[in-house]
Design goal:
homodimer, 14 strands, 401 residues, 4-stranded antiparallel β-sheet
Chain lengths: 401, 401
């Protein structure tokens, strides 16, 4: 039997704590309150509307819905999307637009185009693990930069870069309702980030799956808008959180000079994005249903966030603090009583509650005192139940049981 | 305005002559007989059946069809596929199976896992450009190895490798109804290839999108079967040619030891394959419709291949020779009168016929005397018309017009 000659890069294809947490979670058969995954609530997916659209858009008269799509995206979807984005901070033009297989493929495209082995990539700490994994799969060296309530502490980057002794090739940020912290980068910091990236010749990979789910506070301009057309901002967006994740449809908004390169790269990844789902999304956008759908989601998620914060106050107020997101899906909870959230995970599952432990969001395994909770996918009643179970688990953990 | 710091790898993200040919093709407004793309005939896609399935599988009662899928594939599709493959040379087990976004993503997975910058990859010459492009996107060095009527001339590989001064990390082959030549690797050569790969410690990426479309001759065992469980064979398969390309659903059959690594890698590519299309394929397979569908395709494609060979005899017999595929989509035509098929392309479009010029299938731009014709997507009447137009174009080319 041969020993397979794995690439050195294969060591970068890391499984994360998220994977092991979720596979452990999948094996559980008892009732569990699921705060772990970053999925929209099942009832938040407009599946009845999509089903109705499928009947026509994928119906017998739509024989062309199953062929190869243009690599840059199916024209009806591209047109509908441009129209929907008009007037938002993500408004864009056809020559900058690339349809992708969800936001994840947008990240893969970006890191593939900009990262050579050994290149320095700044990531937020904590950050979205599959994002930093993609950078690692191209053998980037990660530099973890801290966050506070106003997002990435951009003011600290010059010192970090000076310590590293070299400038970053890419700065990977989730500026709005950050995953996992829920924080949003202030306008001042966005301006400074664009300034620094320009000085260093770095690309900003701006990953924003949640921006349209703002339910409180005033809007902050996108990095693209702040950069005023400077090509260094590579924006990654997705329909996963606002319509449905299983469709695997997202988009990249990037400098027109990158368009052909992105087409070449995507052809060598998956040829094109699946066409039936592009047709479903195009029809959904074209029908005008998105605005009302988003308004409904915002109301519901605001309600659910407050329910989670209330539950946290009620049951964890003496041993934890947490962030206050103005949109998106996630709260970041920090325990102050010394319990290790990774060690706690199995106890929590046994008590009937799931979350993602903090170290899953750091390639160097920081944040053993923290955990991510998704408030979007559980009802207020379930949320309260889940947080009560979490408290029981923490108490058992603190008692060393 | 910044100058973007593209990765060195970006030079490997090559656009191929296929791209420029097809974009030129897309801009044509007059009637063109299209022998260029490797798409199934529109009438070969079971869109009415898929539409019927969509009504239930994606219907209002199927709310879970829009969520994230398991990264290794949706269980109903995995089960249906294992059943369909039983008794074929591609029969496999769940621990070897990975659902992908078409065959293209299977190739991306394989090259990503095995190729480091500078590694030697043997490719057939001519070969499928998007396959070799994927290898280039990981900065492989390609070694082009010639084909004859029995596929890759495996007997020549030891000499080529000796000349290269090092052994290949990967051998990329399309052993059955090869793209673009239409040839099939003989059993003897398959055995020798496995032997050589084993000696060199190389992985064989076995790309076989057409194997189920054999319409003549006897079956040849798959490389996986020849290798008898040796983990060096990494098999890439797809539903694109046998059901519908736009679904972007395919699979990889590889050593169980690679399963977790493939899951990690795919999570950093696109999280999971789109779920609605997986459900459509699962239902299609589960309904038992595939066998009859394939039988119909084989009959039709046999008929169409003979029609093309007849048209070539009638109109190009004095200035060309061509291959005789026993399945799949493609014929490879070699001109003997010195006309350059790449230079000829625009004239051919003006005459109303499209093909892919030979140099598109070679990273080093060989095969200026050759072209690929897809016989699968045109009716016999259109095929005859197209080949007559091709003759007129070649005559104009020969006359230097």
């Amino acid at each position: 039997m041969s020993v397979l000659p794995l690439a050195a890069r294969a060591t970068g294809l890391v499984g994360s704590v998220i994977d092991s947490s979720t596979s452990l979670l999948a094996s559980q058969t008892h009732d569990i309150v699921r705060f772990a995954m970053g999925s929209p609530a099942a009832e938040a997916v407009p599946s009845a509307v999509l089903a109705e659209i499928a009947a026509t858009a994928l119906g017998a008269a739509a024989a062309d819905a199953y062929g190869y799509a243009a690599t840059e995206g199916d024209p009806p979807l591209r047109e509908a999307l441009l129209k929907v984005l008009e007037g938002t901070s993500d408004a864009t033009t056809a020559d900058r637009l690339m349809i992708t297989a969800g936001g994840m493929q947008g990240l893969d495209l970006g890191f593939k185009m900009f990262v050579d082995p050994g290149d320095l990539v700044i990531v937020e700490s904590p950050t979205y693990t599959n994002g930093s994994s993609t950078a690692l799969s191209y053998q980037a060296e990660l530099l973890e930069a801290p966050l506070d309530d106003d997002g990435l502490i951009v003011e600290q980057l010059p010192d970090l870069v000076a310590q590293a002794g070299r400038t970053p090739k890419v700065i990977y940020t989730i500026p709005t309702f950050q995953n996992p912290s829920g924080t949003t980068m202030s306008l001042r910091r966005r301006q400074l980030l664009v300034e620094l990236a320009n000085r260093w010749g770095s690309v900003i990979i701006d990953d924003d799956p949640y921006g349209l789910l703002r339910f409180e506070g005033g809007p902050v301009p996108s990095l693209r808008e702040v950069a005023a057309g400077d090509p260094l901002v590579f924006s990654v967006r997705t329909f996963s959180k606002i319509i449905a994740p299983g469709l695997r449809v997202g988009w990249v908004d990037a400098d027109p000079g990158l368009q052909q390169l992105m087409i070449n790269a995507k052809q060598a990844m998956d040829t094109c994005t699946n066409l039936p789902a592009q047709r479903l999304v195009a029809e959904f956008l074209g029908s005008g249903a998105l605005a009302g759908h988003l308004a409904g989601l915002r109301d519901e998620y605001r309600h659910r966030k407050h329910a989670m914060q209330q539950a946290l106050s009620d049951h964890l107020g003496d041993i934890a603090h947490w962030t206050d997101p103005q949109g998106g899906f996630f709260l970041w909870v920090t325990l102050t009583n010394g319990v290790d959230t990774q060690q706690l995970f199995e106890t929590a599952l046994a008590e009937g509650v799931a979350y993602i432990p903090g170290p899953a969001f750091s390639a160097s395994g920081r944040f053993h005192d923290a955990l991510r909770l998704c408030f979007a996918s559980t009802t207020p009643e379930r949320t309260d139940l889940g947080v009560r179970r979490l408290r029981r688990a923490i108490d058992r953990g603190a008692a060393g049981q």
